Amino acid sequence: MDSEITLRVDGAAHELTVDVRTTLLDALRERLRITSPKKGCDHGQCGACTVLLDGRRVNSCLVLAVTVGESEVTTSDGLAVDGEPHALHRSFVDRDAFQCGYCTPGQICSAAGMIAEARAGWPSAVTADVTEAPNLTDAEIRERMSGNLCRCAAYAHIVPAVAAVAEAEGVRR
After folding, report:
1. Burial code of 106-136, b = ≥16 C-beta within 10 A, e = fewer?
2. Which of 3, 62, 66, 74 meets the CB 3.0–4.6 Å disulfide criterion with 78?
3. What is residue 135's predicted lDDT score, i.e. its pLDDT?
4. Cα(69)–Cα(67) distance, rounded to whole angstroms?
5. Residue 159: pLDDT band by 50, 70, 90 thresholds?
6. Cα separations in angstroms, 69 against 38, 74, 77, 97, 170
7. Where do the domains of the chain lie, and which CATH numbers do they carry?
8. Cα 94 to Cα 34, 112, 159, 160, distances in angstroms
């Protein structure tokens, strides 16, 4: 069964007719040719498909496109402003936080969402005191980013790349 939808992606509206079983990831990649989110496991376990849905990180392989409604989908490409890379893009490059780059767009979207969550005061499983704003220690960043896997094992560089941006934005204390 097909359904007509409007996907708002990176600030642009796209009219599509999709099968109701089409995932957001497949709509982005196959219908809109937006290749930033990657299909890794297609089971929500690797994070390569992570995008922001109204600012919250989601695995786009687990979200049906017909359920997105009027929400804004932001990909790693959409984090750039006026053609200028986002601070996370620059930090990943400056700190060599990728090797093959396959997971990088998902890592960056997850990091952007994670920093926003910490700024909002949301604790994680390793937050020492849940009554206070989270302190984005390396352990805290690793826990919050644990849903994003890197086949090349660039984790030693990913944590400092995320930490630098969080600190620059006044989130890491």
Report:
1. bbbbbbbbbbbbbeeeebbeebeeeeeebeb
2. 74
3. 87
4. 6
5. very high
6. 22, 14, 21, 34, 33
7. 2-75 (3.10.20.30), 87-168 (1.10.150.120)
8. 25, 17, 13, 10
